[in-house]
Amino acid sequence: MSRRRRVSPVVWLLLPWALVYGAFFVFPFLFSFVLGFLHYNPLNVANTTFVGAGNVTRLFGDADFHSALRNTLFFVIGTVPVTTTLALALAWLLHAPLPMKDAFKAAMFLPSILSVVVIALLFKLFYAPGGALNETLRALGLQTHGWLTDPATALPAIMAMDIWAAVGYYALVLYAAFTSIPESLYEAATLEGAGHWATFRHVTLPMLKPALGFVLVINTIRSFQVFVEVLVMTQGGPLGSTNTLVMMLYDTAFRRLDYGYSSVIAYAVFILSGVFSVFALRRMRSQTPVQQRGVPA
Amino acid sequence: MMRYLRWIVLLVAIVLMAYPLGWMIAVSLRTSEGLNLRYYADVWNSGPFDRYFINSLAVAAVVVLGNIVFCTMAGYAFARYRLRGGKLLFFLVLSTIMLPKQVILVPLYIEMQRLGLIDSYWALTLPFLVDPFNIFLIRQYLLGIPTDCEEAARIDGAGEMFILFRVVFPMLTPVLAVVAIHTTLTNWNSFLFPFILTNSTSMRTLPVGLALLAQGAYSIDWGHLMAGAVLSALPVVVAFLIFQRRIIGGLTTGMTR
Amino acid sequence: MMRRSHMRALGVVAGLCFLAAFSCGKKSGSRSTSVHLWQFWDIAVVAPIIAEFEKQNPGLHVEVEQLTWATGLEKIQAALASGTQPDVCELGSTWLPRFSYEGVLEDLTAVYEAERDSFLMWDSALYKGRVYGLPWVQGSRVLFINRELFKKAGLDPDRPPQTWDELLQASQKIGALGNGVYGFGQNIGEKYVLYKKFMAFAWGNGGDVFDERGNVVVNSPAMLEALEFYLKLAPFSLQEKQEVLDQYFKTGKLGMQISGAWNVKNYALEAPNLDYSCALVPKPAADRGEHVSFAGAEMLVVFKGSQQKEAAVKLARFLQAYPQAKAVSLAAGSVFPAAREAMNDPAFTKDPRIKVFVEQSLTSRTPPAHPGWNEMEEAIDHAVEEAMYGRRAPRWCLDDAAKEITTIAARFNQK
């Protein structure tokens, strides 16, 4: 460490971030937090009233909120494990000497390059009558279906789309983790007489923990915020079957002009993603083997 | 035998992934007069798309550069220095990811307006110059790199800035590739904030231009919409294909430390 | 190690930044001598009109901005919240009542009194006896029929269905053609659309959401009848989102649907060989009810607090005036002037299909001018959808909607 303790280099290092954060995020965050305790309407700022915990207690009795909560939880629980498992499987498949590997990697990454809006528009057409999916079913002699207009299939259809869009990216992340596992560990396992599955469970998986943790946390947080897809494809319908928390938040603020309540919903999402992430990380950490390195905080 | 099986399963997976994309391109090319680029021409001519393109490019370049420099600085600080309240700071960083950004839309607009920055390149770049997600990535990566080189340089009497930019920075290439691609993607496709924070046509970015198109004459025409979508994705796809090795290489080593 | 003092230093810097952001910001930019207009049409369409206005009013400069339908409302809200709203703004007829209620609009009753008989579609601008907006352009929904499918089904395309029974029969016959062809198109599964189609039938039957005294009558017998009829069409209908319906009609797989003029423009470009015509929305019976339809009107408002009030009102009146509204309509191709003159202008009456739109606007309605309308329309959408999905009997769906709408109305302390 430098002997000159005048100003720690840390201050300089963190200065740009502090400036941007301080200037552009502190105020909006504070504002949005305070909004949760107010009844605020941008058209009538002068009439803003303090409602204390009123917005929060309103959450408990709001059937729309409960339904949005259910839908969002269903979405998260339905997509995150599936995406992670599929990504793991793809990564494992990739982790072998194969022809055209680069092409595969590139193809897998492509869906994540497109913007969510583009993917949503694409799948809106894909799922429509006369769209690719229904036409394929018809060609195969199967029954076509209004995937996005049936309350029972609308949310699963959006979930399938989300999995399609995310799998490639996470598979590459996990593939990277695969390549970092030292051969020596596999050799040791084979010497001990471990079969494929045992090797996977006791050598591969533990070494993947950090990457898996990363994938789970990021995917969970992003899934809790599913919104653009719903906005483009169904706007929360049919019959509220695809109404998610952020969709409701958006609608509450910009259509119903109830910014205070909307803010409370936002913080509900915040808390939920935080809780789920911490939970996921704890579970991963409790099984950390001795050879772990570079563990996330 | 196993190898062929793997390859086939992978192939099936890839086809499943590519199928909707192929469909999208097919729809954008299938005009009422057979296969041609008419929709693309219509979209390009419907507004100053070259200006939109340049705007998107300029903004993306500035934001990516800013992130690479500033997030490295912050990531280095978080990784190498034990900060009192470091955990708290880190949580602050994560919290910006966990809060839905729609809720800060209007407050940010109010602030930008007070600063007189609405409808300028500043509005499109400043708030996005330091993405906490990138700080997180760089920190994780650095935690897995031993400090030997840095210690050696320090013993030789090098200053902190020198150590950061001449010693550490080059070692970060893989994770910085990830930072670059991640930031580019988020920024290139972002619509809501650029739209809200700008007004004039000359300030528009590509997604905003496309959204305006989608509500105009071609609002119900799948061909035009898909052509617009392909156009907006094209630059990033091209960049990706060119830098593919480095990007995937970055992902390959960047996440595992 | 990072010293506490350094942490504090950082915190102070951050805090100073954001305080500075607040104090030194200028509240408004160089807005003093310009009139600011926010609207939804392509700048290319509006620019010549603005140029003409500036020529006729030397010394006045207009700054125009284009909003998107998707996020325009958010932008207007952000502007109002920060005090940077424009002087003149285009607002949809379904949003206007809320703005009137919140008291952010200039009173334009004087203009109304002068121009009242020259324009249609004033209703959404009326609030508590005063007028807060000027009708600019509007678009009704009419019945589109595919003439070829009519012929195939043994129907006469020159005699489109005039009554509900005829509509039902035509749907049945065309639906019976099979081969992926549907008789009628019903909207489902998205917001902001369904109630527009349903209310056409409801209003035609004499039903409505409120009666003259402001009571909620959305579950009246007339409304129930309309809903039950609407459900009768279901077995022969394609129930899908608007763009799918439009697409199906375009490719000749849909016999009839109620839709808007954006299709006329699009079909001319993309399906020039499509043999279709337009007709007024059918009424309940030959001797009963009316050919009523839904119309969306675009209104021009002036925000209170405008520094250029006089110039703003002048600009709004200029835009609203027939020649300008006509220019916008012709360029946009999907709307018509709200001015009555359009009814007799060959530009709008020459094409028989366009003529129907113009005719229909004489008996079209905008939704009740209630500040809570955006929530109420969702209640109606929900009721009709629930009935369409067969979740509950129509009468309970409407009863629920009535309860919901009453609750919403109570919140606004009104009507």
Q: Which residues of chain C sit in consecutive blocks of at least 5 with pLDDT less than 50? A: 24-31
- Overall mean confidence score, pLDDT of chain B: 81
Major interchain interface with per-chain residue totals: A-B, 86 and 82 residues
What share of residues are in beta strands of chain C? 15-25%
Domain tally of chain C? 2
Determine the N-to-C terminus distance of chain C: 66 Å
Which CATH-level-2 architecture of the largest domain in chain B? Orthogonal Bundle
How many beta-strand runs of chain C?
A: 14
Describe the overall structure.
The complex is a heterotrimer of chains A (297), B (257) and C (415). Chain A has helices at residues 9-35, 54-61, 63-94, 101-113, 116-127, 132-139, 154-179, 183-191, 196-224, 228-233, 245-254, 259-285, and strands at 38-39, 49-50. Helix content of chain A is 70%, strand content 1%. Chain A is globular, with a radius of gyration of 24 Å. Residues 288-297 of chain A have low confidence and may be disordered. Chain A has a single domain, classed as MetI-like fold (Orthogonal Bundle). A two-stranded antiparallel sheet of chain B has the order 1-2. In chain B, a hairpin with a 2-residue loop joins strand 1 (30-31) and strand 2 (34-35). Chain B has 2 domains: 1-36; 46-254, MetI-like fold. Chain B is 75% helix and 2% strand. Chain C has 415 residues and is an alpha/beta fold. Chain C has 2 domains: 34-140 and 295-365, D-Maltodextrin-Binding Protein, domain 2, CATH 3.40.190; 142-280 and 370-411, D-Maltodextrin-Binding Protein, domain 2 (3-Layer(aba) Sandwich). In chain C, the strands form 3 sheets. In chain C, strands 1, 2, 3, 6, 12, 13 and 14 form a 7-stranded mixed sheet that branches. Chain C is globular. Classes of the chains: A mainly alpha (297), B mainly alpha (257), C alpha/beta (415).
